[in-house]
User: Fold these one by one.
Assistant:
Number 1:
Amino acid sequence: MATTTELPALDPLDLLAIDALLDDEERAIRDTVRQFVRENVLPEVGDWFEQGILPRELIGELAKLGLYGMHLHGYGLPGASAVAYGLTCLELEAGDAGVRSAVSVQGSLAMFAIWRWGSEEQKGRWLPAMHTGEVIGCFGLTEPDAGSDPGAMRMHARRDGSDWILNGAKMWITNGTIADIAVVWARTDDDAIRGFIVEQGMPGFSAPEIHKKLSLRASVTSELVLQDVRVPDDNLLPGSSSLRGPLSCLNEARFGIVFGSVGAARACFECALDYAKDRIVFGKPISAYQLTQAKLAEMALEINRATLVALHLGRMKDAGTLRPEHVSLGKMGNVRGAIEVARTARTILGANGVTLEYPVIRHVNNLESVLTYEGTHEVHTLVVGQALTGENAFR
Ligand code: TGC
Ligand code: FAD
């Protein structure tokens, strides 16, 4: 083994030198997004969170960077690797989960649904415009009475000549109010579950914003209300007729969260480490106390573990060997770990841990949504449990 004097210096923010496992292109994309977040998100995101807004201009800036649908190919889309997309999610969520959500929902949910299950005509019409941010999409699966169990959905689509008539409501839909199109999943009379592209302005369709959230405040969350909305058959996604359709899209967005949650954890760790070195209590920086060092060591351990898991899953996705069960394991572990890191960071900051002057409480609150959306911790636990035992314990 080389002596420590021959080895490169330790980087506290990359203790295991995981950076060396990335290639030049992955590093370049990561650095570009990190710089963007430093310049365009971090200076203002505390105010956005306080005001409960996500500025429209930011949505345009993310498009200019080419992030919407960046991991999809064809139709003028970049076709970046899964790892590059994951690192992008990580850097965006180091800014704020709401910003990562904007990119996840557009690229991994709305665009992916059309890319995977749409007709050639739909793909050509919508995907290029969604990549440039000209068209914003949302993804409506959850309903007031059907969240973890989307098979219980009540949204109904009935055939009427060459059209469909949709009735029902979706709940907790990211970007609903600002979206130009909504991918809405509905049950048809043959008991199939099908996806429809519902366009803003179609009579009977409204998307009121949900207020009073104390989490993911820098993100628009909405209800989708459909009352006798007439949708032409051309807007039916022809490729999917069961829950497999929407669930396949969730795999994509969940994958982004496996990486994204590491970003939130890293941001909290970085803040807590700096704070601990500067904060003098009982005559010494709190970083000099064993209890603080134990907290920092546990945080570093978790972040390095979670980064390696994310990278491993990313490599598997690029190799075509990633299964939904792998994504569930990654989402479960990395979001839980990020919450532990964020809450520990909050304790290191003392009272400053509860103000938006620092990023930590924002991430703590955001991670409560991340724990719940894209499949709750319990749902992923049962997916993994079923993979281990062969027993379905959902029902
Ligand atoms: P089940 O009978 O197991 O399966 C029905 C059909 O779906 C297939 N399938 C999958 N296909 C692809 N990927 C997956 N992960 C799949 N899981 C199941 C399955 O093979 C079957 O196919 P087929 O061809 O035989 O019809 O379905 P179930 O009703 O028992 O439900 C299973 C369960 C509970 C795991 C699933 O429904 C689930 O994942 N529930 C959680 C719902 C959820 O995650 N919702 C998220 C909404 S979107 C969101 O939160 C966006 S947040 C904003 C952001 O991302 O930033
Ligand atoms: P429920 O399903 O009612 O679950 C309540 C509790 O019961 C949870 O703890 C759950 O884990 C537990 N539970 C459920 N089933 C079982 C079981 N079998 N065994 C043990 N425990 C169980 N949805 C979309 O479609 N599109 C979006 O863009 C979107 N964006 C969102 C943005 C935000 C900010 C939030 C908070 C949510 C968003 N969602 C979106 C909705 C999200 O996906 C759902 O909230 C989530 O799937 C859980 O559904 P629920 O809230 O109805 O909880």
Number 2:
Amino acid sequence: MHLVTLIPGDGIGPEITKAVTDIFTAAQVPVQWEEQNAGQTTFDQSGELIPGALLKSLEKNKVALKGPITTPVGKGFRSINVTLRQKYNLYQNVRPSKTTAGIKTRYEGIDLVLFRENTEGLYSGLEVYDERLGIADSFNRITKEGSRQICRAAFAYAAKHGRKKVTLAHKANILKMAGTLMLDACKEAAAEFPQIVYEDKIIDNMCMQLVNKPEQFDVVVTTNLFGDILSDLCAGLVGGLGVVAGANIGDDMAVFEAVHGSAPDIAGQGKANPTALLRSALMMLHYLGEHAKADQIEKALEATLLHKQECTGDLGGQASTSQFAQNIIAKL
Ligand code: NAI
């Protein structure tokens, strides 16, 4: 039995988390959940944004499944997602995007995995504001070690999963120092894995290529901000935010969560698609070595996706979040 910390989050978080835990129960997955929460609701109840009990649970179990957490724009609390990623050095944000039978999109043949650096860059939290001059500076801190870690992780993943190519997306033509650190780190990693083709692309061209000919990409590695933007773009290519999974991985801890946020526009209405969180949970099962259970649930999900009417509205269906989950359970 694997003990896993479960963070339902807020907005649509609790609805999609319940869908996933119901499917896991029905499939008799050997996972025992330890539920802890964070965010505004937790703060209102306990005065803590990230309760000590949540951190203790994470440090003990080393694996978590997390729903999305709202981060207010502008002033307000610092992102809990960014805080957890930095505190536990979860430096890899791994986000697969794949076209799937039944999910309508303009594209076919996409099967790429994005490796986003998860702790540095413009998300380092290093910002100063000079009120007198009206100037805000946000530091794009990139380290040699951080760049090496993420580039190496992308190549190691490619080698382990039989992938053929790694593409670095960067802006080293303008960001002469920070961009060059990533370029050098990727060249270094590429030399260690000569069987994997390596190429680099400037981020603006990368966006155009992704929209124009996404099937050319295999594994993509990039910095924090570019990765954040590219992963939503890639989600759009394969059916939307409701279907793409993600994982924040460090050397000894992993937090699995969907790419999407708390979707306040549809929260509490039973409209949220649980596929993205379910697919994140399946990545977690592979991480835990529970490959057979992951495959069993994935097959049931894929069979459900073939019937549009059994899915949620974002996929053209009419099912609610919980009906969608029941439809998957019926096919296990
Ligand atoms: P969002 O990803 O929550 O929503 C963008 C659009 O996609 C909305 O129209 C939403 O309804 C739709 N959508 C998202 N997930 C869906 C699902 N499972 N099924 C169907 N439709 C879905 O992005 P937004 O609105 O920019 O952010 C809302 C909040 O979420 C913000 O406070 C943001 O900071 C936070 N956020 C949290 C993340 C996390 O906890 N990892 C990641 C991204 C954003």
Number 3:
Amino acid sequence: MEYDVIIIGSGPGGYTGAIRCAQLGLKTAIIEKYPTLGGTCLNVGCIPSKALLDSSEHFYNAAHTFAEHGIKLDHLAVDMPQMIHRKQEVVDQTTKGVAFLMKKNKIDTFYGVGSFVDAHTVKIAKNDGGEETIKGKNIIIGTGSKPMSFPSMPIDKKRVITSTEALTLEQVPKSMVIIGAGVIGAELGSVYARLGTKVSFVEFADSMIPTMDKTMGKELQKAIKKLGASFYFNHKVTKVENTGDEVVVSVDTPDGRGDGPEQITLNADYCLVSVGRKPYTDGLNLEAAGLQTDSRGKIDVDSYLRTSVPHIYAMGDVIRGAMLAHKAEEEGTFIAETIAGQKPHIHYRLIPNVVYTWPEVAAVGYTEEEVKQEGIPYKTGSFPFKALGRARASMDIDGLVKVLAHKETDEILGVHIIGPRAADIIAEAVVAMEFRASAEDISRMSHAHPTYTEAFKEACLAATDNRAINM
Ligand code: FAD
Ligand code: NAI
């Protein structure tokens, strides 16, 4: 069978790209090695983690804020198997939805491991035991990523776990050490801390979510500390051991660095390793197509997302850039349109980044650290949610909006939000920045009252001659 396009991997990059190819009239096949479509995001990533974040947030609010709202509850308890069951139902509905979309768009779906035979031929070792070989004029690699770890923290999937296992625990652990206070650590740490687990973060850097604007990390730490979590920043894990009943994590303290480390040990039911993810290309037999990975395991692509073999493209977590579902989706669409002869465009600087804790963290554009480093003249405007009527009504007063604007032109350079519904508010900032709005442009647009989005307008007013109204 010969296709216009073969896509290997059915994550957000793969399935979105496949649908766009089909819409453009290209005969398309998609290959997925797991029995369900949707990749990391739908099966063990974005969707299940958000389902548990929502459930745990309901529990936390019932336990801690309902009384103040005037709602009394007796015998509140977590039913963990039910929480996990609901999460799985959400995942199943979503992955089935993707399978339906493949059918609807007449995309041939193959379940099995895809590997290159040559630059136009892919062999599928099917999950049902069979084998099939298909040919493609164009091939897109969207094989995603998998969790990273270090030799000092070997994953055994029992007590030393990754995000995948942390999404299926059938009991609320008493304690959990989380190595890495990045996005997964912050989100899954929030889930378990809200359910009553004593969570301890061990982080190599000096703050949570260290790659985001520093203000965000500081504010997020305050919020997660309120859930009872503790933090070991600038600490280095040297050993993680499953002793059967518990896990023992040996950690070098910052004071110990230099001449002879000073060590502490942390004991817990589980150790979640969330120190980043690495690109996944195992079993693809890239060499047969004349391809290689770089020193970090990524597939190198040019600005058209073409590999060194021009009719083979790659996208999503397996290439450079942010490991985000919506970045992979944009790239899937971009490649489909490029193959169809169109001239698409992705504005990488304006891909938003969201952490689904509560308060949520969301950002787009430059961080303050980046504008300083690049010597761009800038000004800032901030506005705290506690000064907003809507936030006081819902008791979501933690956090702020911080706007960075060009000092001379007033163009918005970056927006960093920690607060209620930050994930949704950031869309306004993306639209504004795509149209190169100034802070004054936003401050002159009517924002419905009372809404959380008023904090963005107020932060823009603050950036425009420090004239926030409600501060
Ligand atoms: P993937 O989704 O990883 O899909 C790749 C697919 O390729 C997989 O299904 C894999 O089985 C398949 N595959 C691999 N090799 C082969 C082969 N040889 N043959 C056939 N199939 C193969 N991002 C967000 O934007 N928002 C979030 O809220 C978010 N939450 C996350 C939470 C967690 C816990 C994790 C782990 C990740 C989260 N992410 C989130 C990141 C997001 O999941 C990834 O960025 C996204 O899934 C990448 O999409 P992709 O298409 O590149 O690859
Ligand atoms: P991450 O890169 O966000 O965080 C990893 C953290 O681990 C960093 O803070 C880093 O300093 C720390 N670290 C690294 N090595 C360490 C060590 N040896 N000891 C202690 N700390 C160490 O990676 P994470 O959280 O694993 O997530 C992987 C990817 O998945 C992210 O890049 C993100 O793009 C994606 N993701 C996105 C989500 C979202 O968009 N909401 C949610 C979850 C994951």
